[in-house]
Amino acid sequence: MTFTEQLSLSGTEWRRTTPPNIALCCPFCSDRGETVDTRFRLYINLTSEEAHCFNCQWSAKAGRNGLRRVLKGLGAVGTSVSPEAHVLARQEPLSLPKDFQLLATVRKDPDHKLRTAYRYLVARGVNEEQMVRHEIGVSLVGPASHRVIFPVRCKDRLVAYTGRDFTGTQKPKYYTRGVKESFFGWRECPYPDERTRTLHIAEGVFKAMALERALRYSVAVAALGSSLTLAQARLVCSGYYTDVVMWLDPDGPGIKGGIRSLEMLRRLWPRGGKLWIAGYKGDPLDEVTSAQIRKTFNDMTLAYTTDNCWRVLFCVE
Ligand SMILES: [Zn+2]
Fold first, then answer.
1. In terms of C-beta distances under 8 Å and separation of at least 24 residues, what long-range contacts does 116-123 make, across chains too?
2. pLDDT at 197 over 80
3. Predicted TM-score (pTM) of this structure
């Protein structure tokens, strides 16, 4: 994969500057004692691999594996970087796999593979209402073969999808395409009968849907990673929501990513606006009962009923 493909896969937003240069938000700034970069201050020459951050002054000299070091800093898994032949070519709009088929309708389908995919979802707690609402489907051929497909949309435009293996044999378990500029389950505003303006964010699709089932009519979304991308943080801050609850995974990457996300949200939140943020860490959300989720959320709400501009609550159950 090329460098920019790996950036896209890891959900990193980047911008073209003068070819062959691009710019992105520097992943090294905070570790180097600077504020988190949200202004694309890391410039990278894709040909020579020279790189320089105009905020924290991190730099890589020509031919010194700058691209790989940047990917490592971003937490991208890439092992090698292939030449950037098409970087200036316009990217094709993303589409779902050609054989994509909605799963809500296949409970009694004669095709046993479709039924297996359906049963996999049900076993993970997903109900038919959610299959319909989130347009969850399946693909049986091509690169996302034998995966349940979860589309990620932004204002009705497909921006990404992730496919979860349902056979228990494929690695990696998740196959993700597109750019993480939105969330699985994202809505511009809550459901009509929902009074609060609280957005619940989980790492993965099953956790988000567990939240959705437990907190009926709340908007619960999946970031598809342990940290928000800058584009996701912007989306959260630009819309309808006044409260954000980060349901962090209780592991190292979950907590580190959560803190990085909270810092981005705090910086991007409009001046004068109120942001009420709570974090949770406990057993995985898709392994606890709906009642436990509701109790945790009520505890969080009770603990912070004032007009907090910025609060982080780690509630250990
Ligand atoms: Zn920097």
1. 116/166, 116/167, 117/146, 117/148, 117/166, 120/148, 120/166, 121/148, 121/166
2. no
3. 0.71
Specify whether the CB–CB gap between 224 and 152 falls below 8 A. yes
CA of 5 from ligand 1 middle (Å) equals 21
- Listed range (14-23, 117-126, 297-306) with the worst mean pLDDT: 297-306
> Over the stretch 126-139, which tens digit does the pLDDT of each residue have?
999 999 999 999 99
In whole angstroms, give the CA distance from residue 48 to residue 32.
24
| Contact between 88 and 19 (Cβ < 8 Å) | yes
Structural domains in the chain, CATH included, are: 3-74 (no CATH), 101-178 (3.90.980.10), 198-316 (3.40.1360.10)
CA of 20 to the centre of ligand 1 (A): 20
Can you list the positions of beta strands (E) in the chain? 14-16, 21-24, 42-45, 51-53, 59-60, 101-102, 137-139, 147-154, 157-165, 174-178, 198-202, 219-222, 243-247, 276-281, 314-316
Distance (Å) from CA 67 to ligand 1 centroid: 14
Per-position DSSP letters for 73-87, written without gaps between them: HHT---S--B--TTT
> What is the tens place of the pLDDT at every residue in 79-112?
577 776 545 444 567 899 999 999 988 888 889 9
